[in-house]
UniProtKB/TrEMBL annotation:
BP-aspect Gene Ontology terms: tRNA N1-guanine methylation
MF terms (GO), sorted A to Z: acyltransferase activity, transferring groups other than amino-acyl groups; tRNA (guanine(37)-N1)-methyltransferase activity
This protein's GO CC annotations: cytosol
Source species of the chain: Rudaeicoccus suwonensis
Subcellular location field: Cytoplasm
Protein name: tRNA (guanine-N(1)-)-methyltransferase
Designated gene of the protein: trmD
Function: Specifically methylates guanosine-37 in various tRNAs.
Length: 242
């Protein structure tokens, strides 16, 4: 998969050299390029923002540097990349969208700052890109960079080969609509807290049943919105709090 990120703070993307994503880059599974938006300015101050037409607070990112940056990136190959613009006004990222994005050959991230990017950039980009505005959730970050990091991590780990143990991708929260069960390792006793007996029983049937119940309980307690409708109003012995 190819990934390009355009930002006025390319240093924000430095963590993409670390851990599994860094390894995927070095192995060639992930072809990642970070571009400095200011490269595409032509004035002495390398200006990327200006005041909003119609008035209002804050500054707006100017269209010209974005137009040039998007042309420069898309010029490098001839397929139609997905352009992801991270922003609180976008469609919420979830595991199913991450899976959809992981199937793409090429993602480009346009990280906005200030109040956002001049709206005409979205219109202009449509001719070359499949444009998607994506949000992490209902709160506001200062810019798209941290969101791009999160989206890239959520997506890249689903690209075949990026995670060594592919089985670990199936047994995790949000893969089948329930949160994950609690996990324990040695020692058996720690700070007066014990590992639940059932996990030491060797009875795999009971363990599987216990884990499933834990998943239901946790989901009911922490994320009732995720519970399937047939369990949402279930009696307390089925979904009790954690
Ligand atoms: Cl994707 N961007 C920004 N700037 N703020 C956000 C967000 C994204 N998701 C939630 N808040």
């Amino acid at each position: 998969m190819r990934v390009d990120v355009i930002s006025i703070f390319p240093e924000y993307l430095a963590p993409l050299d670390l851990s599994l994503i860094g390894k995927a880059r070095r192995s060639g599974l992930l072809d990642l390029h970070v571009h400095d938006l200011r490269t595409f300015t032509h004035d002495r101050h390398r200006t990327v923002d200006d005041t909003p037409y119609g008035g209002g607070a804050g500054m707006v990112m100017k269209p010209e540097p974005w137009g040039e940056a998007l042309d420069h990136v898309a010029d490098q190959e001839d397929s139609r990349p997905i352009l992801i613009v991270p922003g609180p006004g976008g469609a919420r990222l979830d595991q199913s969208l991450a899976r959809q994005l992981a199937a793409a050959d090429w993602l480009v991230f346009a990280c906005g700052r200030y109040e956002g990017i001049d709206e005409r950039v979205y219109d202009y980009a449509q001719s070359t890109y499949d444009v998607r505005v994506i949000s992490l959730g209902d709160y506001v970050l200062n810019g798209g960079e941290v969101a791009a990091l999160a989206i890239i991590e959520a997506v890249a780990r689903l690209v075949p080969g990026v995670i060594g143990n592919a089985a670990s991708l199936f047994e995790e929260s949000h893969e089948d609509g329930l949160l994950e069960y609690p996990i324990y390792t040695k020692p058996e006793q720690w700070q007066g807290f014990s590992v639940p007996d059932v996990l030491l029983s060797g009875d795999h049937g009971r363990i599987a049943q216990w884990r499933h119940q834990q998943r239901l309980d946790r989901t009911a307690a922490r994320r009732p919105d995720l519970l399937p409708p047939e369990l949402a109003g279930a009696p307390e012995d089925l979904v009790v709090g954690v």
